[in-house]
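#onboarding

Welcome to the new folks! Below is a worked example of what a typical request in this channel looks like: someone posts a single protein sequence, and someone else replies with the predicted structure as tokens. Don't worry about understanding the tokens yet, we'll cover that in week two.

Example request:
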Amino acid sequence: MAVENSLEVANGNFDDDGHPSRTGNLWSCVAHIITAVIGSGVLSLAWSTAQLGWIAGPVSMLCFAIVTYVSAALLADCYRSSDPVTGTRNYSYMDAVRTNLGRTQSWLCGLIQYVNFYGTGIAYVITTSTCMRAIQKSNCYHREGHEANCEYGYHLYMLLFGAVQIIMSQIPDFHNMTWLSVIAAIMSFSYSSIGFGLGVAQVIENGRIQGSISGVAEANIADKLWLAFQALGDVAFAYPYSLILLEIQDTLKSPPSENKTMKKASKIAIFITTFFYLCCGCFGYAAFGSDTPGNLLTGFGFYEPYWLIDFANACIVLHLIGGYQMYSQPVFAFLERWFMAKYPSSGFVNNFYSFKLPMLPPFRMNLFRLCYRTAYVASTTAVAMIFPYFNQVLGVLGALNFWPLAIYFPVEMYFVQKKIAPWTRKWVVFRIFSFVCLIVSLVSLVGSIEGIISAKFG
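Example response:
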């Protein structure tokens, strides 16, 4: 076992600016984006379409796709300041906001961003436990019939996922995650294709397309509005990756310029994502109509073939192992950099212990990293055990993330970078764009919070 200081470690595969060497390309970037975007959100889109109906459901997905690309294009130009090609790098979203909008707004951005990182981790714990439980229920239904009382708890599966994430969280940083993102992206294609295929098969078996223009009927207008607002929150959760975009862009090598590669990767990834979202959302609703489950692959609209349901849920679990890391690594990096700067002489914070196990590459362990990351994973697991409400939690996270991180900060930074004068045509268009997205975000938040309260205390 060897002991190294963090500064000694940094003298290895690092650039002149002290950050890990950037070796990412267009396709690694696409893999990162797909891993970040296609996650637990895709499984709720059939339910969202059912609440919104045949017109509003697909249109809302297309609108969010367009908005997400606009947001990504604006943010990609913020990676460097003041010139998007040759300017100084901004290594994170907070850095870009600090450079363009000042320190106060950067702290506000950081608060919202890291709350969303943490909340997404909670959502992934909930989703993974739901999928693992669904495998057990699927086998039970196959053995004992569809009317059997196949009920199982969540908590054991949440603890198992947490244990796996404690190990995975020792991956040093984003720059060492390409292999995990590629595996996760393949898994997302697999289970999305299975959900799409099962929906098509069910429609063929039914002999007709179910559903209506107005969506699922409710007892009164208020209930209908709450669920429609929550559905918008679920769609909002499924799309934007603004909170992680600049961290992904920081992995790209140049030339070509990072913003050019990121815009191209965003276009490819959003096109692929929207195709799968429309297929899963629309065919799921077409297959089940008013009985569309909240989670397409775990709500047991589908029972057979049970082995395919099991495989799809196993793919989701493998994908979310990578997805959890995608949203946790920026939190790890932020706090660890802060502590290293704050306590440069602390061995607990800065010393790395190098281990060499047979048949494996050398492994570096830091005691602070081990303790902090373990505590972080344990806390997300504990909160998920208290609030295991899939659709409602996704809706709240989507609403909290959508307007401030995907719309407000990118638009404001665009105004500063391009020196857009007030009341010009471009200024007015983007202000209207931002206001409309704010209204959507607010109604989604209200509807989703009402859903959590009703599920917890109703």
